Amino acid sequence: MINKNFQKLSDSYLFTEILKKTKDKKDAIRMGIGDVTRPLAPVVVEAMQKAVVEMGSAKSFRGYGLEQGYPFLRQAVCGYYARKGVELKDDEAFIGDGAGSDIGNVLDIFSRDNSVLIPDPVYPAYVDNNLMMGHEIFYMNGNADNGFLPMPDQSFSKAKIIYICSPNNPTGAVYSADQLKLWVDYAIANDAVILFDAAYEIFVQDKDLPTSIFQIEGAKKCAIEFSSLSKTAGFTGTRCSYTVVPHELIRDGTPLNKLWKRRQETKFNGLAYIVQRGAEAFFTDEGIKQSKENIAYYMQNAKHISETLQKLGIWHTGGKNAPYIWLKCLDDMTSWEFFDYLLANTNIVGTPGSGFGANGEGFFRLSSFGSKESVCAAMENLTREVN
Ligand code: PLP
Protein backbone atom coordinates (compact mmCIF):
# COMPACT_ATOMS: atom_id res chain seq x y z
CA MET A 1 0.00 0.00 0.00
CA ILE A 2 2.70 2.44 0.92
CA ASN A 3 5.13 4.36 -1.24
CA LYS A 4 8.18 2.15 -0.86
CA ASN A 5 10.41 4.93 -2.09
CA PHE A 6 10.27 6.34 1.46
CA GLN A 7 12.39 3.37 2.53
CA LYS A 8 15.26 4.86 0.52
CA LEU A 9 15.30 7.97 2.73
CA SER A 10 17.78 8.10 5.59
CA ASP A 11 16.12 7.45 8.95
CA SER A 12 16.61 10.80 10.50
CA TYR A 13 16.82 14.18 8.90
CA LEU A 14 20.14 15.91 9.56
CA PHE A 15 18.75 18.56 11.89
CA THR A 16 16.76 16.08 13.94
CA GLU A 17 20.01 14.25 14.62
CA ILE A 18 21.71 17.49 15.67
CA LEU A 19 18.85 18.35 18.02
CA LYS A 20 19.06 14.88 19.53
CA LYS A 21 22.79 15.27 20.17
CA THR A 22 22.42 18.72 21.73
CA LYS A 23 19.13 18.54 23.61
CA ASP A 24 20.80 18.65 27.04
CA LYS A 25 23.22 21.42 26.09
CA LYS A 26 21.18 24.45 27.12
CA ASP A 27 24.12 26.87 26.76
CA ALA A 28 25.28 25.62 23.34
CA ILE A 29 25.99 28.30 20.72
CA ARG A 30 23.78 27.29 17.83
CA MET A 31 25.35 27.97 14.45
CA GLY A 32 23.87 24.92 12.82
CA ILE A 33 20.29 25.21 11.65
CA GLY A 34 19.85 27.81 8.93
CA ASP A 35 17.08 29.74 10.64
CA VAL A 36 17.09 33.51 10.91
CA THR A 37 16.90 35.43 14.19
CA ARG A 38 16.31 39.08 13.23
CA PRO A 39 12.68 40.26 13.39
CA LEU A 40 10.47 41.24 10.46
CA ALA A 41 10.97 44.74 9.06
CA PRO A 42 8.66 47.36 10.66
CA VAL A 43 6.91 48.10 7.32
CA VAL A 44 6.09 44.41 6.94
CA VAL A 45 4.64 44.22 10.46
CA GLU A 46 2.61 47.36 9.87
CA ALA A 47 1.17 46.00 6.61
CA MET A 48 0.21 42.73 8.26
CA GLN A 49 -1.43 44.55 11.17
CA LYS A 50 -3.47 46.57 8.72
CA ALA A 51 -4.47 43.37 6.91
CA VAL A 52 -5.56 41.76 10.18
CA VAL A 53 -7.85 44.71 10.84
CA GLU A 54 -9.28 44.37 7.30
CA MET A 55 -10.02 40.71 7.94
CA GLY A 56 -11.90 41.67 11.10
CA SER A 57 -14.42 43.81 9.30
CA ALA A 58 -17.26 42.43 7.19
CA LYS A 59 -16.70 45.13 4.58
CA SER A 60 -13.05 44.28 3.91
CA PHE A 61 -13.00 40.62 4.91
CA ARG A 62 -11.57 38.23 2.30
CA GLY A 63 -12.14 34.50 1.96
CA TYR A 64 -10.27 32.24 -0.45
CA GLY A 65 -7.77 34.14 -2.53
CA LEU A 66 -6.36 33.15 -5.89
CA GLU A 67 -4.30 29.96 -5.84
CA GLN A 68 -1.43 31.73 -7.61
CA GLY A 69 -1.37 34.69 -5.25
CA TYR A 70 -3.06 38.08 -5.24
CA PRO A 71 -2.30 40.25 -8.28
CA PHE A 72 -0.83 42.96 -6.01
CA LEU A 73 1.88 40.56 -4.81
CA ARG A 74 2.56 39.00 -8.19
CA GLN A 75 3.06 42.51 -9.56
CA ALA A 76 5.37 43.34 -6.65
CA VAL A 77 7.47 40.25 -7.42
CA CYS A 78 7.70 41.35 -11.06
CA GLY A 79 8.80 44.79 -9.85
CA TYR A 80 11.58 43.14 -7.81
CA TYR A 81 12.74 41.27 -10.90
CA ALA A 82 12.62 44.47 -12.95
CA ARG A 83 15.23 45.92 -10.56
CA LYS A 84 17.47 43.02 -11.61
CA GLY A 85 16.86 43.81 -15.27
CA VAL A 86 14.50 40.85 -15.71
CA GLU A 87 11.15 41.48 -17.33
CA LEU A 88 8.36 39.15 -16.26
CA LYS A 89 4.63 38.98 -16.87
CA ASP A 90 2.50 38.89 -13.72
CA ASP A 91 1.25 35.41 -14.51
CA GLU A 92 4.78 34.04 -14.68
CA ALA A 93 5.25 34.60 -10.91
CA PHE A 94 3.40 32.27 -8.53
CA ILE A 95 3.11 32.94 -4.81
CA GLY A 96 3.67 29.96 -2.54
CA ASP A 97 4.16 29.05 1.11
CA GLY A 98 7.85 28.25 0.84
CA ALA A 99 10.59 27.48 -1.66
CA GLY A 100 10.96 24.18 0.18
CA SER A 101 7.39 23.18 -0.72
CA ASP A 102 7.53 24.38 -4.31
CA ILE A 103 10.87 22.70 -5.02
CA GLY A 104 9.29 19.40 -4.02
CA ASN A 105 5.85 20.07 -5.49
CA VAL A 106 7.19 21.04 -8.90
CA LEU A 107 8.05 17.40 -9.51
CA ASP A 108 4.31 16.80 -9.97
CA ILE A 109 4.51 18.38 -13.42
CA PHE A 110 7.29 16.09 -14.66
CA SER A 111 7.07 12.48 -15.72
CA ARG A 112 8.05 9.88 -13.09
CA ASP A 113 10.56 8.27 -15.43
CA ASN A 114 12.78 11.33 -15.44
CA SER A 115 16.34 11.25 -14.18
CA VAL A 116 17.59 14.21 -12.21
CA LEU A 117 20.96 15.82 -11.73
CA ILE A 118 21.75 17.15 -8.27
CA PRO A 119 24.90 18.86 -7.02
CA ASP A 120 26.76 17.30 -4.12
CA PRO A 121 26.99 18.88 -1.58
CA VAL A 122 23.66 20.71 -1.53
CA TYR A 123 20.45 21.40 0.42
CA PRO A 124 19.28 17.84 1.22
CA ALA A 125 15.62 18.37 0.29
CA TYR A 126 16.38 17.97 -3.45
CA VAL A 127 17.58 14.42 -2.92
CA ASP A 128 14.81 13.50 -0.48
CA ASN A 129 12.06 14.79 -2.77
CA ASN A 130 13.42 12.86 -5.72
CA LEU A 131 13.90 9.69 -3.71
CA MET A 132 10.25 9.93 -2.63
CA MET A 133 9.23 10.22 -6.29
CA GLY A 134 11.39 7.26 -7.28
CA HIS A 135 13.46 9.31 -9.71
CA GLU A 136 16.87 8.12 -10.78
CA ILE A 137 19.44 10.53 -9.36
CA PHE A 138 22.80 11.51 -10.84
CA TYR A 139 25.15 13.55 -8.73
CA MET A 140 27.58 16.21 -9.89
CA ASN A 141 30.64 16.68 -7.77
CA GLY A 142 31.33 19.93 -6.00
CA ASN A 143 34.76 20.06 -4.41
CA ALA A 144 37.52 22.45 -3.43
CA ASP A 145 39.05 22.16 -6.93
CA ASN A 146 35.96 23.47 -8.73
CA GLY A 147 35.09 25.90 -5.93
CA PHE A 148 32.03 23.72 -5.16
CA LEU A 149 30.56 24.85 -8.49
CA PRO A 150 30.21 21.79 -10.73
CA MET A 151 29.91 22.53 -14.44
CA PRO A 152 27.99 20.73 -17.22
CA ASP A 153 29.37 17.51 -18.54
CA GLN A 154 27.85 15.31 -21.27
CA SER A 155 28.24 12.27 -19.04
CA PHE A 156 25.01 13.22 -17.28
CA SER A 157 23.02 14.12 -20.38
CA LYS A 158 20.38 11.48 -19.48
CA ALA A 159 19.23 13.70 -16.61
CA LYS A 160 16.61 16.13 -17.88
CA ILE A 161 15.92 17.89 -14.58
CA ILE A 162 18.89 19.82 -13.22
CA TYR A 163 19.05 21.43 -9.78
CA ILE A 164 21.21 24.48 -9.30
CA CYS A 165 21.46 26.29 -5.97
CA SER A 166 23.23 29.64 -6.16
CA PRO A 167 24.24 31.03 -3.69
CA ASN A 168 24.75 27.48 -2.57
CA ASN A 169 23.61 26.05 0.70
CA PRO A 170 25.87 24.79 2.34
CA THR A 171 29.03 26.01 0.61
CA GLY A 172 28.16 29.66 -0.02
CA ALA A 173 29.52 29.31 -3.58
CA VAL A 174 27.90 31.48 -6.28
CA TYR A 175 27.95 30.83 -10.04
CA SER A 176 29.21 33.64 -12.24
CA ALA A 177 27.15 34.80 -15.22
CA ASP A 178 29.56 33.04 -17.61
CA GLN A 179 29.22 29.78 -15.71
CA LEU A 180 25.42 30.01 -15.64
CA LYS A 181 25.42 30.74 -19.37
CA LEU A 182 27.17 27.40 -19.91
CA TRP A 183 24.45 25.70 -17.86
CA VAL A 184 21.70 27.45 -19.82
CA ASP A 185 23.28 26.48 -23.16
CA TYR A 186 23.71 22.92 -21.93
CA ALA A 187 20.07 22.67 -20.76
CA ILE A 188 18.77 24.01 -24.07
CA ALA A 189 21.00 21.69 -26.08
CA ASN A 190 19.86 18.67 -24.02
CA ASP A 191 16.20 19.63 -23.73
CA ALA A 192 16.62 19.70 -19.95
CA VAL A 193 14.97 21.97 -17.38
CA ILE A 194 16.99 23.77 -14.71
CA LEU A 195 15.33 24.13 -11.30
CA PHE A 196 17.16 27.19 -10.02
CA ASP A 197 17.04 27.78 -6.26
CA ALA A 198 17.68 31.45 -5.54
CA ALA A 199 16.64 31.33 -1.87
CA TYR A 200 19.81 33.23 -0.86
CA GLU A 201 19.90 35.74 -3.72
CA ILE A 202 19.71 38.78 -1.44
CA PHE A 203 23.02 37.85 0.20
CA VAL A 204 24.98 38.37 -3.03
CA GLN A 205 27.19 41.40 -2.44
CA ASP A 206 29.36 41.27 -5.54
CA LYS A 207 27.58 43.36 -8.19
CA ASP A 208 28.95 41.21 -11.04
CA LEU A 209 27.36 38.00 -9.79
CA PRO A 210 23.87 37.04 -11.01
CA THR A 211 21.03 36.90 -8.49
CA SER A 212 18.55 35.28 -10.88
CA ILE A 213 19.07 32.75 -13.65
CA PHE A 214 16.79 34.92 -15.80
CA GLN A 215 19.60 37.47 -15.99
CA ILE A 216 21.21 34.96 -18.33
CA GLU A 217 20.21 35.02 -21.97
CA GLY A 218 18.11 32.04 -22.99
CA ALA A 219 17.20 31.03 -19.41
CA LYS A 220 13.47 31.60 -19.92
CA LYS A 221 13.53 28.72 -22.37
CA CYS A 222 14.97 26.25 -19.90
CA ALA A 223 14.54 27.27 -16.26
CA ILE A 224 12.13 27.58 -13.36
CA GLU A 225 13.29 29.77 -10.48
CA PHE A 226 12.38 29.38 -6.82
CA SER A 227 12.89 32.05 -4.25
CA SER A 228 11.59 32.89 -0.87
CA LEU A 229 11.22 35.63 1.68
CA SER A 230 12.41 33.20 4.38
CA LYS A 231 16.01 34.33 4.53
CA THR A 232 15.46 37.47 2.46
CA ALA A 233 13.03 39.10 4.86
CA GLY A 234 12.85 36.89 7.94
CA PHE A 235 9.77 34.93 6.80
CA THR A 236 10.94 31.45 7.91
CA GLY A 237 8.05 31.32 10.35
CA THR A 238 5.69 33.61 8.45
CA ARG A 239 6.04 31.71 5.12
CA CYS A 240 6.01 33.21 1.65
CA SER A 241 7.81 32.24 -1.52
CA TYR A 242 7.64 32.93 -5.23
CA THR A 243 8.24 30.60 -8.14
CA VAL A 244 8.78 31.89 -11.65
CA VAL A 245 7.72 29.69 -14.56
CA PRO A 246 8.27 31.62 -17.82
CA HIS A 247 5.80 31.26 -20.69
CA GLU A 248 8.72 30.49 -23.01
CA LEU A 249 9.48 27.28 -21.13
CA ILE A 250 7.87 24.58 -23.26
CA ARG A 251 8.49 20.83 -23.18
CA ASP A 252 6.67 18.15 -25.21
CA GLY A 253 4.77 21.03 -26.81
CA THR A 254 3.26 22.07 -23.45
CA PRO A 255 4.03 25.30 -21.58
CA LEU A 256 5.16 24.33 -18.08
CA ASN A 257 3.52 27.52 -16.78
CA LYS A 258 0.15 26.02 -17.67
CA LEU A 259 0.95 22.76 -15.88
CA TRP A 260 2.19 24.49 -12.72
CA LYS A 261 -0.90 26.74 -12.67
CA ARG A 262 -3.12 23.68 -13.01
CA ARG A 263 -1.21 21.90 -10.27
CA GLN A 264 -1.57 24.83 -7.89
CA GLU A 265 -5.27 25.24 -8.65
CA THR A 266 -5.87 21.66 -7.58
CA LYS A 267 -3.45 21.24 -4.70
CA PHE A 268 -2.91 24.71 -3.19
CA ASN A 269 -5.55 27.11 -1.98
CA GLY A 270 -3.31 30.12 -1.79
CA LEU A 271 -1.28 31.87 0.87
CA ALA A 272 -2.89 33.88 3.69
CA TYR A 273 -3.98 37.38 2.66
CA ILE A 274 -2.31 38.84 5.75
CA VAL A 275 1.03 37.30 4.83
CA GLN A 276 0.73 38.42 1.22
CA ARG A 277 0.19 42.02 2.37
CA GLY A 278 3.31 41.71 4.54
CA ALA A 279 5.26 40.34 1.59
CA GLU A 280 4.02 43.17 -0.62
CA ALA A 281 5.43 45.61 1.93
CA PHE A 282 8.81 43.88 1.77
CA PHE A 283 8.95 44.53 -1.98
CA THR A 284 8.67 48.32 -1.52
CA ASP A 285 11.83 50.46 -1.46
CA GLU A 286 11.45 50.93 2.29
CA GLY A 287 10.79 47.23 2.89
CA ILE A 288 13.89 46.20 0.96
CA LYS A 289 15.96 48.85 2.74
CA GLN A 290 14.82 47.75 6.19
CA SER A 291 15.26 44.05 5.40
CA LYS A 292 18.73 44.67 3.98
CA GLU A 293 19.75 46.08 7.37
CA ASN A 294 19.21 42.57 8.75
CA ILE A 295 21.16 41.08 5.85
CA ALA A 296 24.04 43.46 6.63
CA TYR A 297 23.90 42.32 10.26
CA TYR A 298 24.23 38.66 9.23
CA MET A 299 26.98 39.45 6.74
CA GLN A 300 28.92 41.22 9.49
CA ASN A 301 28.70 37.98 11.48
CA ALA A 302 29.87 36.06 8.42
CA LYS A 303 32.83 38.40 8.05
CA HIS A 304 33.78 37.92 11.68
CA ILE A 305 33.62 34.12 11.34
CA SER A 306 35.62 34.20 8.13
CA GLU A 307 38.31 36.51 9.58
CA THR A 308 38.66 34.33 12.66
CA LEU A 309 39.07 31.18 10.57
CA GLN A 310 41.60 33.01 8.42
CA LYS A 311 43.63 33.98 11.49
CA LEU A 312 43.50 30.41 12.75
CA GLY A 313 44.63 29.06 9.37
CA ILE A 314 41.45 27.02 8.85
CA TRP A 315 40.57 26.43 5.18
CA HIS A 316 37.13 27.80 4.38
CA THR A 317 34.99 29.32 1.69
CA GLY A 318 31.62 31.13 1.48
CA GLY A 319 30.52 33.93 3.78
CA LYS A 320 31.09 36.66 1.17
CA ASN A 321 27.93 36.32 -0.92
CA ALA A 322 26.04 33.91 1.31
CA PRO A 323 25.24 33.54 5.00
CA TYR A 324 27.10 30.21 5.25
CA ILE A 325 30.76 29.52 5.90
CA TRP A 326 32.01 26.15 4.71
CA LEU A 327 35.17 24.94 6.39
CA LYS A 328 37.52 21.99 6.30
CA CYS A 329 37.42 19.93 9.48
CA LEU A 330 40.60 20.09 11.53
CA ASP A 331 43.08 17.21 11.62
CA ASP A 332 41.25 15.23 8.92
CA MET A 333 38.33 14.57 11.24
CA THR A 334 35.09 13.37 9.67
CA SER A 335 32.22 15.84 9.73
CA TRP A 336 30.50 14.16 12.70
CA GLU A 337 33.80 13.76 14.59
CA PHE A 338 34.37 17.47 14.15
CA PHE A 339 30.79 18.17 15.26
CA ASP A 340 31.41 16.27 18.52
CA TYR A 341 34.83 17.87 18.99
CA LEU A 342 33.50 21.41 18.50
CA LEU A 343 30.54 20.84 20.78
CA ALA A 344 32.68 19.35 23.56
CA ASN A 345 35.48 21.93 23.39
CA THR A 346 33.91 25.17 22.20
CA ASN A 347 30.19 24.74 22.86
CA ILE A 348 29.57 25.49 19.18
CA VAL A 349 26.86 23.58 17.33
CA GLY A 350 27.45 23.54 13.59
CA THR A 351 26.24 21.34 10.77
CA PRO A 352 28.27 18.34 9.59
CA GLY A 353 29.05 18.69 5.89
CA SER A 354 28.33 15.01 5.28
CA GLY A 355 24.65 15.77 5.85
CA PHE A 356 24.67 17.63 2.52
CA GLY A 357 26.03 14.76 0.44
CA ALA A 358 29.02 12.43 0.17
CA ASN A 359 31.29 15.26 -1.02
CA GLY A 360 30.53 17.18 2.17
CA GLU A 361 32.38 14.58 4.25
CA GLY A 362 35.30 16.21 6.05
CA PHE A 363 33.65 19.64 5.83
CA PHE A 364 31.47 21.64 8.17
CA ARG A 365 28.93 24.46 7.83
CA LEU A 366 28.66 27.44 10.14
CA SER A 367 25.76 29.82 9.75
CA SER A 368 25.85 33.55 10.38
CA PHE A 369 22.19 33.82 11.38
CA GLY A 370 22.82 34.08 15.13
CA SER A 371 23.19 37.20 17.23
CA LYS A 372 26.39 39.22 17.03
CA GLU A 373 27.05 38.38 20.69
CA SER A 374 26.73 34.63 20.16
CA VAL A 375 28.96 34.70 17.09
CA CYS A 376 31.61 36.70 19.01
CA ALA A 377 31.44 34.24 21.92
CA ALA A 378 31.73 31.30 19.52
CA MET A 379 34.76 32.79 17.78
CA GLU A 380 36.44 33.53 21.13
CA ASN A 381 35.90 29.92 22.21
CA LEU A 382 37.23 28.60 18.91
CA THR A 383 40.32 30.83 19.07
CA ARG A 384 41.05 29.71 22.63
CA GLU A 385 40.70 26.05 21.63
CA VAL A 386 42.72 26.11 18.40
CA ASN A 387 45.56 28.39 19.54
N1 PLP B 1 16.30 26.37 -0.64
C1 PLP B 1 17.40 26.37 0.10
C2 PLP B 1 18.71 26.28 -0.57
C3 PLP B 1 17.33 26.44 1.50
O1 PLP B 1 18.44 26.45 2.22
C4 PLP B 1 16.05 26.53 2.11
C5 PLP B 1 15.91 26.61 3.56
O2 PLP B 1 16.81 26.52 4.33
C6 PLP B 1 14.93 26.51 1.29
C7 PLP B 1 15.08 26.44 -0.08
C8 PLP B 1 13.54 26.51 1.86
O3 PLP B 1 13.12 27.74 2.14
P1 PLP B 1 11.62 28.05 2.56
O4 PLP B 1 11.67 28.50 3.97
O5 PLP B 1 11.19 29.13 1.62
O6 PLP B 1 10.80 26.82 2.39
Protein model, in words:
- The chain has 387 residues and is an alpha/beta fold.
- It folds into 2 domains: 12-40 and 286-386, Alpha-Beta Complex (Aspartate Aminotransferase, domain 1), CATH 3.90.1150.10; 43-284, Aspartate Aminotransferase, domain 2 (3-Layer(aba) Sandwich).
- 38% of the residues lie in helices and 15% in strands.
- The strands form 4 sheets. The chain has a 7-stranded mixed beta sheet, sandwiched between helices.
- α2 packs antiparallel against α9 (273-282), α3 (71-83) packs parallel to α9 and α10 packs parallel to α12 (372-386).
- The relative contact order is 0.17.
- The mean pLDDT is 96.
- Pyridoxal-5'-phosphate (PLP) is lined by residues 34, 98-100, 123, 165, 169, 197, 199, 228, 230, 236, 241.
Give me a quick take on this structure.
By secondary structure, the chain is an alpha/beta fold. The protein has helices at residues 14-22, 42-55, 71-83, 99-105, 125-133, 177-190, 229-233, 256-267, 273-282, 285-311, 335-346, 372-386; strands at residues 29-30, 93-96, 115-120, 136-141, 161-165, 193-197, 223-228, 241-244, 250-251, 254-255, 316-318, 324-328, 348-349, 351-352, 363-367.
